[in-house]
Amino acid sequence: MSTTTTTTATTPPSAPAGSPGPAPVKAAAADEGRIGLRANLRHIGALARRNMLQIKKDPESMFDVLLMPIIFILLFVYVFGGSVGASLGGNRQEYVNYLVPGLMAMMGLNIAMAVGTGVNDDFRKGVMDRFRTMPIARSSVLIAKIVVELGRLMVAMFILLVMGFVVGMELHGSVFGLLAAVALSAVFGAAIMWIFILLGLSLKTAQAVQGTAMLVLMPLQFGSSIFVPTQTMPGWLQAFTDYNPLSNLADAARALMQGGPVGDSVWWTLAWAAGITLVMAPLAVAKFRKKA
């Protein structure tokens, strides 16, 4: 007499209702490595749209972009234009042709400072903590910031050029040279934004970001060929301006817009932009992942 035994499959007990699931941050970090290029671009677009909607809700955030080029043009042209223009062998109009390409180099720095304070403010409000729980690449959050700020930079460049032509700037080069100067300034500006993003992630308050940024910006801006020729500066300061990337950018923009010899200024500017991005972008993304 044979007996048959039946076995019943056992299933693992289900988690009780209301028990916590896997941590969303860990899940997001696991999903990040599987995100493809198309999805990453889609995330950047969505985050950039979110940042633009913020600007739409707070139009006062565009005041610096709209007013800064006008103030700088009027201030430097009509305060320093006469004396500096004479040192250039001409008049105030000669100084306008010299100044506007230099201010194009400076616009990127001032816009970049706003990126750092914006990132810092988003962290204080908890917005970035929410992004870090989502299955998106961490770099997409920061790249979206840069994309929107580049748009703001283009608005500032447009106003700067319009004001330049209003006060008497003459374009001796080609329109292609003008567009190349704008593009070169945008490339360098995007690279500088990574530095200020890292500052925004590293410092505790937006005021600290602004204060540190000014300590960096002032020597770079005034110790360069943006506002005045460097021939009249002391020898030690001329040596600094020779290695200052802003001098290379300003000289390259002048040559492209006025039709002069470009020399190595363009290549040095691109080299500086590539070097800054390769070093600062990974550091900023790593800091974004680990920031408490």
Describe the structure in brief.
By secondary structure, the chain is an all-alpha fold. About 75% of the residues lie in helices and about 0% in strands. The termini are far apart.
Structural description of this entry:
With 292 residues, the chain is mostly helical. Helix content is 75%, strand content 0%. The N and C termini lie far apart (71 Å). 36% of the residues are buried.
Secondary structure topology:
Elements: H1 24-32, H2 37-57, H3 63-87, H4 92-125, H5 127-132, H6 138-166, H7 175-202, H8 206-222, H9 235-243, H10 245-258, H11 265-290
Helix pairs in contact: 2-6, 3-4, 3-6, 4-6, 4-7, 4-8, 4-10, 6-7, 7-10, 7-11, 10-11
Mean pLDDT score:
82
The tally of beta strands, per DSSP, is 0
Structural class: mainly alpha
- Summarize the helix and strand pattern as letters: HHHHHHHHHHH
Considering DSSP H and I runs of 4 or more, what fraction of the residues is helical? over 70%
* Shape type: elongated
**Largest sheet features:** none
Q: Approximately what portion of the residues adopt beta-strand conformation?
A: under 5%
List keywords for this structure.
single chain, 292 residues, mainly alpha, 11 helices, 75% helix, disordered N terminus
